[in-house]
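Technical note accompanying the year-one report. For the benefit of new consortium partners, we illustrate the data format agreed upon in the data management plan: each record pairs a sequence with a structure-token string. No post-processing was applied to the example shown here.
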Amino acid sequence: MADHAPSMAVSSPSPAAVLQLLKPVTWFPPMWALACGVVSTGASLEGRWHLLIVGVALAGPLICGCSQAVNDWFDRHVDAINEPDRPIPSGRVPGRWGLGIAIFWTALSLAVATLLGIWGFVAACFGMVLAWLYSAPPVRLKRNGWFGNSAVAICYEGLPWFTGVVVVTGMLPDAGILAIALLYSIGAHGIMTMNDFKSVEGDRQMGVDSLPVLLGVDRAARVACWVKAVPQVGVVGLLAWWGATWFALAVGLMLLAQVIFMLRWLKQPKELAPWYNLTGVNLYVMGMMVSAVALAGL
């Protein structure tokens, strides 16, 4: 299929168009998860603040930004239907510039990752592989909502959390930290599904089997809620079991508020997605930090 024809031909993208391609609004989740990983260790950062700064930059502007460029390049035909004003289908990032930016950002990300030691570099490599497998054929994990959203959830939550731990301690996370990071990664799958409702029509036309396409809008919305909520029940249970009672109560109350917001979101999942992102998703990420502080005190 030919690329969507731009309304105004340009020879090279402007800095503003490149920045939009890298989608700064998406950088927050992995940066926050990495910060949670650092906090969960309880380790002092004295003399090592540079590692945190490099780690946050790697998780957000670099790896996450790169994944957005990769995704937009391989999704340019779908975006021409769903969101034609995006940089590539609109022509503001013309020709093969989108692919070139994705490749350059991959190389830059891996170069910066060498500053974080062997485990930081390994984590970055794993994240970049998933970023390309998610969007690029022939694998193109995003063609299936179960696999694609799992890859994104791991890259947005679990992998940065792991990276935050290994960067400041030089050691692999203990079982408790791994369990909490894994639970929040599983829950993030539900958040990824919630973001799929805005592009159901284009996904259906282009053969992308997101969960709203596979299961139908109503059923997929209910599945997303369950997948997001149940792991948080597990977090509450683990914190309580470990004796972090007040932290468990705080996470439980935030989960209860999310459930209340979910009940409203279920009535109009597509229309209310932006509203839910400002309410239920924010409570989710706040619970991550509360859990990280609890782990630091154990």
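Partners are asked to follow this layout when depositing records. The domain at 11-173 is CATH 1.10.357.140 (Tetracycline Repressor; domain 2).
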